[in-house]
Amino acid sequence: GNNIIVKDLADKIGVSPSQIISKLIGLGVMVNQNQSIDSDMAVIVAEEFGVELTIQETVEESVESIEEKFSLDYEDDPKDLKARAPIVTVMGHVDHGKTSLLDAIKETSVTKSEAGGITQHIGAYAVNINNKKICFLDTPGHEAFTSMRARGAQITDIAILVVAADDGVMPQTIEAINHAKAANVPIIVAINKMDKPTANVDRIKQELVENGLVPEDWGGETITVPVSAKNREGIEDILEMILLVAEIQELKANPNRNAVGTIIEAQLDKGKGPLATVLVQKGTLQVGDMVVSGSSFGRVRAMLDDKGKRVKKAGPSTPVVILGLSEVPNAGELLYAVDDEKTARIIGEKNKEIIRAEQMRSDQKISLDDLFERI
Ligand code: GDP
Ligand code: MG
Fold it and tell me: Which spans are transmembrane here (predicted)?
């Protein structure tokens, strides 16, 4: 049901918060004036003061309902959609070579002039292959599918499943397959560590079949690519396969609208303030835009690309680091560009209230649980 903050209840009844609190203690409920109690409890307390409280069932506000209210993430007209680069996540069992493969891809695709600048880690990077772009999420694939999806957002277009050729399908491999299948994301299997003498491709393919992934050359639909991240072999092949799968998907977004993106990672920089890596998904994010993400808002003061270079604009499927937010946003949260500062502030502050209320509710739940434990 609905919750009411003790202080507000006291105001409504016309008594002091401490009077309410002592009644609540009498009822076995320990709360302070800033915490909330549920509406049934509020009715009982009000009765004790001879006040009949009627509960109005209000629609509970949430960060999602605010998004809707301000139509932050409206549908685009199909005629405004343009092709965009695929967003790829690498998944697989520990030590099968996810990090090594991402590093190999980075090195293969970086031109000499860019080398050196790419050392910084921002959680995502874009590579160019045959004049086409691919965006890789550099976060552990598992997180990309869990925390990133906490808000229902689906940011991955293609999953690369890394399986070590000398080890085979392992528990986290199966977990990764399940995540990708649940999200309806196509899987490309990178059979890694092909340089090892004990590498056994047929055994890996057999194990894939046992887990519902039938390789193309065995009559199925799963693309498998033998690679060696260590020796930089098969890297171009896997990039080409990604582009092929992406082409079939016909990925599109409208670049000419207020930007919508997802926070990939964020931290506080002592000198620069809150820094957030945003993966732009729709629209074009520009320096000077007003943005809001949860309770964090502000004007984009500067943007850096994945090579640390200053940029003015970032279109769909582009990762950028932005400066100018009022506080550090949460990874997985959506970020919206809005028309003006006032709108950003209103949404940010509304979200702050909602998040605080949710926090209070869970705090209250904890204190009640503690109380029962003591009883
Ligand atoms: P992750 O846990 O999946 O990110 O795996 P890493 O990329 O950290 O690799 C785990 C270990 O396997 C490291 O010691 C790598 O050097 C090694 N490794 C990764 N790829 C290859 C490969 O293609 N061949 C060989 N021989 N070793 C590899
Ligand atoms: Mg790793």
Answer: none
